[in-house]
Amino acid sequence: MLSGRLKTAAKVAVSVGLLGWVVHKAGLRNIADTLAHASLGWLAAAILLGFAATCVQATQWHALLEAHGLRRTWWRCLRLVFVGNTFNSILPSSIGGDVARAMMVADTPAERVPAASTVVLQRLCNFPGMIVLMTLGLLLTLGDSRASEIRLVALAGVLVGAAGLALCMTPLLGRLAALPVLQTRRPGRVLAKLLGALDAFRGRRSELLFASARGTAFWGLSVVNQWAFMHAVGVPIPLTYAAIVVTTINALTMLPISINGYGIRENGFSRWLGPLFGSGAAAAQKGTAVGFLLAAQSLLWAGIGVVFWLTDKRHEEAAEAARAVAVAPAV
């Protein structure tokens, strides 16, 4: 428990420090002025695109649940995706929302392992889409000197992501599930069951292909969503360059060194939007504003999720499980 709290405190320190640095560099008044003059048309378009991306997530998860024999309505899946966004926003863990979704979609204790495997599979099936968009961004910006600084970071992301996906398609997960050390305690046995379920699904290529295609659609909408936010605050960014910036920054926010990517996201935008401006301060101002708009969108989704969570009869049990994961030493 103490180790988990120390790690959380370290993540908070990283996020607060990075946010403090970029806000100091840009100037809080300048950021506020940028947000005050944001284009309402572009903001509305961004929100609609973000909602469309969330609907694609619900469709993807709904299909994975069906493939595991868990028949749920699409509307229920959409509600729980918003609930997951709520827990991701309020807990110092990027998987708290996943735990809440898995708990709330399972109608019986026997369904919890397959429900959890669908949530993990959804995460895994989103990686091909991110890699595809990142690769397209790399290829389509080869002649763009503004992408020279981010290119190596994006290439590293593509290689690491591809290697990780390749490992997941090997019998590795099944071998890990069979390790005797996982059978000594209940959490280990649960993990072994989850790994076994994931390994068993590995051979279902058509379901994985469709899930990955939906994951690619999700990432495509996410890129356009953030591209619209950039245009809302006056960032004249081509969509091709936005693809590489958005996917690379999102990949970096997955590193377990901050609270849900806060600080990393704002500094990433400030740095890699720099080539579009002659001044580093202007890039920091615009980039931080984009990060704040994305945070506002997350809070909007979280607010919607709160309503759905409170109307679910299992909300207290899901909240307790999500909190337990958020302070666990492994997180």
Overview of the structural elements:
The chain has 14 helices and no strands. The chain is mainly α and 331 residues long. The protein has one domain (2-326). The longest helix is centred in the last third of the chain and has 31 residues, at 280-310. The protein is globular.
What topology emerges from the helices and strands here?
Layout: H1 2-26, H2 28-36, H3 40-67, H4 74-90, H5 96-105, H6 112-140, H7 148-168, H8 172-177, H9 186-201, H10 205-232, H11 239-253, H12 264-272, H13 280-310, H14 315-326
Descriptive labels:
mainly alpha; 14 helices; 0% strand
Multimerization status: single chain
Task: Look at the helices and sheets and give the structural class.
Answer: mainly alpha
**Count of helical segments?**
14
Give a quick account of the main beta sheet: strands, pairing sense, barrel closure. Answer: none
End-to-end Cα distance: 11 Å
Low-confidence stretches: none
Q: Fraction of residues in helices?
A: over 70%
Task: Output mean pLDDT.
Answer: 87
Output the radius of gyration: 20 Å
Strand tally: 0
